[in-house]
Design brief:
Elements (H helix, E strand, L loop, with lengths): L21 H13 L5 H18 L6 H19 L5 H11 L4
Helix pairs in contact: 1-2, 1-4, 2-3, 3-4
Amino acid sequence: MTTRYDAVLLDAFGTLITIDDPFVRLRRSVRRHLGVEVTAAAAEEAFRAEMAYYGDHCHEGADAASLAALRAAGAAIVLRELGVDADPARAATLLLDAIAFR
């Protein structure tokens, strides 16, 4: 008997992939790119705020320009949550540096 499937759903986060130590990586990235020390708690709060924003707005990243705008908005959230005054372009780089999948 042959079964036909109309769709296959995969649960990526927590099943197939995870984000590798995002709070620790964010602290290191802020130190490396901006020369600023932040607490573990501050890094976690900032990263969670960015993830919540990204989850609500990820559909807006439809092309290179809108994806760059989405990343810049997320980086601005991280800076605001950390209380760090820095160039948003540098912040986008440090945020990308802080995200690694395993």
